[in-house]
What does this fold into?
Amino acid sequence: MANTYSQINIHCVFAVKGRENFITKNFRDDLHSYMSGILKNDGSYPLAVGGWSDHVHVFFELDVTMKISDQMRMLKATSSKYINDKKLVPGKFQWQEGYGAFSYSRSQRNDVINYIMNQEKHHKNKSFKEEYLELLKKFEIEYKDEYVFEFYD
It folds into this structure.
């Protein structure tokens, strides 16, 4: 779109269906790189992609012509196809339905990038459930427990 400019920084979080610890070290970095490529191909600008064994964080500048829901649908569908085609996990891989989406200003970008890129260290002290619920509370997002990701303690 001519003469249309934006800078919309979006941090999305989504989880493996059944909260299985499928995203192992042997392919995690490749998956994150692949996801970064998906974002680029869709016209968004990836800032950080990271996560842990049961979830992923993506932080990107959303393309002006893209809706967050469309970006996430394509990212999750394409990345699960990648995992299944390469047979990286036993059985059929799927992401849980839904995601969390949070917006940040340009001045907050480095903090968010560092947070995402240090997920291994971060999850030595905090579960994904604690992390996700803290994000919802920090952004003052009202939620119903039955509609939040399936969490298994």
Q: What stands out?
A: The mean pLDDT is 92. The first helix runs from residue 25 to 41. The two ends are 47 Å apart (CA to CA). The first strand starts at residue 9 and ends at 15.
